[in-house]
Write a structure and sequence with these properties.
Elements lengths: L8 E11 L4 E12 L4 E5 L6 H8 L7 E9 L2 E2 L5 H7 L4 E4 L3 H4 L6 H13 L3 H14 L5 H4 L9 H14 L4 E5 L7 H18 L2 E5 L3 H7 L2 E6 L2 E7 H6 L4 H8 L49 E2 L6 E2 L4 H5 L10 H9 L1
Parallel strand pairs: 3-8, 3-9, 6-7, 7-8
Antiparallel strand pairs: 1-2, 1-4, 4-5, 9-10, 10-12, 11-12
Helix pairs in contact: 4-5, 4-7, 5-7, 7-8
């Protein structure tokens, strides 16, 4: 039963470990994310930060070698680690997910209409002509031209943008309360990207549906998300209302991501990159995981792992020991001084 006072989805202290045979490797370290009904939330970060794993864990799609702990509540009901038979009723009907690559997510040997019809039968009990009519309506709703003909075509007969729209139609077939879009515009040209994003926005507003947009593209998230969570090394390291985050980021990693974006309206400048790479889960540095790449790092950062804390504005939190210093600094925090490197090696 839905509880009005409960958020649509509440993820608390979510951890994920993968069995490597002789040991476990931890990929998520206590992720907290709350999504209200009808809200759009952006999840950003570099590849390998744990964005997709978070949502695969929520839906129980990580396989038997993954060990998940914490809490995931849907309308106040615990769904983490529920039996697969129970999760099957939730996937698609309550929570739907659009995966990164529609070409590999769609079954190449089944027609588009059959694949949408399978979702309609499983979650809404529609079969035969009723299912075909609803599949036709869904394809038309997501902007596929000549939708009746497309029902009888295979994925390889459609363009990348049309396959992405077909995936969205399948996700909507179960009338979900929450739609997770994992890199929904990957490998699409700019015009098609804009169309897909406009479509997702329209569908969210039309159906009062929660939307999670997982992306490394900050421009996409800035346009779409009311709230943004930045992930790094399996943790949320900054979260804030979208406009506040992009106007005044308080974590040096977030500032680094912003500095790598071109400014269309401003003067020409050299884009900056974040030194180094995301460390693998089994070799995380002690203390702050971003410390070895951060110009603001101090010896304290090498020994203390910061938690999310208030960062100077309502509903804005950052996991950094030096948010006040960063707020007053013009430095983006990208160049790692030699002194900082030496401190980390001896920590």
């Amino acid at each position: 039963m839905s509880v009005a006072s409960e958020p649509l989805l509440a993820i608390r202290d979510l951890t994920v470990e993968f069995d490597q045979g002789d040991h476990f490797v931890q990929a998520l370290h206590g992720v907290d994310i709350v999504i209200e009904r009808g809200q759009s939330v952006g999840i950003v970060g570099e590849s390998g930060c744990g964005k997709s794993i978070t949502w695969l864990a929520v839906l129980g799609l990580l396989g038997s070698r993954a060990r998940c702990a914490g809490s995931v509540k849907l309308d106040g009901e615990q769904i983490l680690n529920r039996p697969d038979r129970e999760l099957t009723r939730i996937r698609g009907s309550r929570i739907a997910m659009i995966f990164q690559d529609p070409a590999s997510s769609l079954n190449p040997v089944h027609r588009i209409g059959r694949q949408i019809g399978e979702v309609l039968m499983l979650h809404r009990g529609l079969t035969g002509r009723a299912a075909r009519a609803e599949a036709h309506r869904l394809l038309d709703r997501v902007g596929i031209s000549n939708a009746l003909q497309r029902l009888d075509e295979y994925p390889h007969e459609l363009s990348g943008g049309m396959n992405q729209r077909a995936m969205i139609a399948m996700a909507l077939a179960g009338e979900p309360d929450l739609l997770i879009a994992d890199e929904p515009t990957t490998a699409l040209d700019a015009t098609i990207q804009a169309q897909i994003l406009d479509l997702l926005h329209e569908l969210r507003c039309e159906n009062d549906m929660g939307l999670v947009l997982v992306s490394h593209d900050l421009g996409v998230v800035a346009d779409m998300a009311e709230r943004v969570a930045v992930m790094y090394c399996g943790r949320v390291i900054e979260e804030s209302p979208g406009d506040r985050l992009f106007d005044a980021p308080r974590h040096p990693y977030t500032r680094g991501l912003m500095a790598a974006l071109p400014d269309i309206d401003g003067p020409k400048r050299r884009l900056k990159s974040i030194a180094g790479t995301v460390p693998p889960p089994r070799h995380l540095p002690p203390g702050c995981a971003f410390g070895p790449r951060c110009a603001h790092a101090t010896p304290e950062c090498a020994t203390h792992r910061p938690d999310l804390r208030p960062a100077g504005a309502p509903r804005h939190r950052a996991a950094c020991l030096h948010t006040d210093l960063i707020a007053d600094s013009l430095d983006t925090g990208l160049a790692v001084p030699e002194a900082a490197d030496a401190e980390w090696e001896t920590a």
